Amino acid sequence: MKNPKPATITFFLAIVISIAAAMTHFFLERHGQHALFLFVLIFLLSYFFIYNSLQIFIYRKIKLIYKSIHNLKLGRDTGFSEHLGDDPVADVENEVADWGVMKKREIDELRRMEQFRKEFLANVSHELKTPLFSLQGYVSTLLDGALEDPNVNRVFLEKSAKNLDRLCTLVEDLNEISQLERGDIALALETFDINKLVREVFEGAEVKANNRNITLSIKKGTDTAFNVLADRERIRQVLTNLIVNSIKYGKESGETTVGFYDMDENILIEISDNGIGIEEEHLPRLFERFYRIDKSRSRDVGGTGLGLAIVKHIIEAHKQTINVRSTPGIGSTFGFTLLKSKDR
Ligand code: ADP
Fold first, then answer.
1. Same domain (yes/no): 73, 112
2. Phi then psi for 294, rounded to 5 degrees?
């Protein structure tokens, strides 16, 4: 019998004891009625005695285990109920099962975070190593004599400067992401026109866009003021990252269009390009730190692989959402929402 209850165990023990007593009596006295009476009496007495002893014993022991598990689960003095139900074994079984599931989840999460930390560290050191080693190479070549060679000295210095810029951008992005992840940044919410901010970002990105002959424009029919309540400088950074990406991964002589859509409580802002696009399989991981589809292309165009992770953090800090849809060879659209401002 699997998992017998205390009552069942008691019943069988009481039967055995009372049969033994009744039979002994019968053999000694040869009196059937007395033996039957003794059987019933001993059965009732032993049932009562064994059942209560078992209950007290099990209850005390189990209660101790229950209490320790409860304390482990919730921390001390946090709402432990002194009362166990009618079936203490089942209660403890449930507690242990719950506890096991909870611990497994915690362990999985810790493992995931450990893996994340390892990968992050490996990525950071790799990203730092590449420009640092190049810089070291150019500087030592210059010192070894190239400085006096007018054919290469300027080129090497320019390459050194480019690598230094890369290092600075990387350190700035790392600093930014670590602050965002620590939740250190308080948002400075204000009402502003998102259309006007997009135009400012267009102006800042003009040189980059001209270099690739890409036109930056606001989608027809949506070119009016849209007041939102958000942190203007952080949203400037979001727009800059998305618009600069649309130029970096856009088609030469292509176009980047920004559209605004009124969605009741929110304004949806969409940045579309007609560039290389993104394969479906990459879309779910695109916003992870250092996730890049084509690492060498990203580095060539000055990417750190942190831009979209920063963007996602900022939008989530605003309790809003960001999404992407894309077709390889046709282009990509990144869309995010912001709270519409109630001030007009
Ligand atoms: P990066 O610094 O490499 O640009 P991001 O986090 O900004 O890093 O972007 C991550 C990756 O997503 C890029 O390396 C690129 O492969 C892809 N990506 C981002 N924006 C676009 C886009 N508009 N079109 C195609 N691919 C894009």
1. no
2. -120, 100
CB atoms closer than 10 angstroms to residue 209: 20
pLDDT attached to residue 78: 46
Low-confidence ranges of the chain (pLDDT < 70): 1-2, 73-86, 88, 344
- Ligand 1 atom at minimal distance to the Cα of residue 241: 7
Q: Which amino acid is at 59?
A: Y
292 CB less than 6 Å from ligand 1? Answer: yes
How far apart (Å, rounded) are the C-alpha atoms in residues 170 and 174? Answer: 6
The total of structural domains in the chain comes to 3
Which residues span the domain enclosing 148?
Answer: 107-182
Ligand 1 contact via 305 beta carbon (within 6 Å): yes
User: How distant, in Å, are the alpha carbons of 95, 223, 274, 307 from that of 257?
Assistant: 57, 11, 9, 19
Burial of residue 293, with CB atoms counted within 10 A of its CB: 0-12 exposed, 13-18 middle, 19 or more buried: middle
Q: Answer whether 272 contacts ligand 1 (Cβ < 6 A).
A: no
Q: Is the CB of 308 under 6 A from ligand 1?
A: yes
Residue nearest (by alpha carbon) to ligand 1 atom 7: 307
What is the value of pTM for the model shown? 0.72
Q: Please give the Cα distance from 333 to 315 (Å, whole number).
A: 16
pLDDT at 81 (0 to 100): 54
Residue 139 is encoded by which pair of tokens?
A: 């500087």
Same domain, 293 and 319: yes
Contacts of 257 (CB under 8 A, 6+ apart): 217, 218, 219, 271, 272, 273
Q: Is residue 100 part of a domain?
A: no
**Token output for 240:** 């800059």
Q: Comparing C-alpha atoms, which of 99, 100, 63 is closest to residue 82?
A: 63
Give the span between the Cα atoms of 145 and 142, in whole angstroms. 6
Q: What string of DSSP letters covers 266-312? A: EEEEEEEE-SS---GGGGGGTTSTT--SSHHHHHHTT--S-HHHHHH
CA distances from residue 135 to 132, 141, 241 in whole angstroms, order as listed: 5, 10, 26
Instruction: State whether 209 and 304 are in the same domain.
Output: yes
93 located within any domain: no
Does 94 fall in a domain? Answer: no
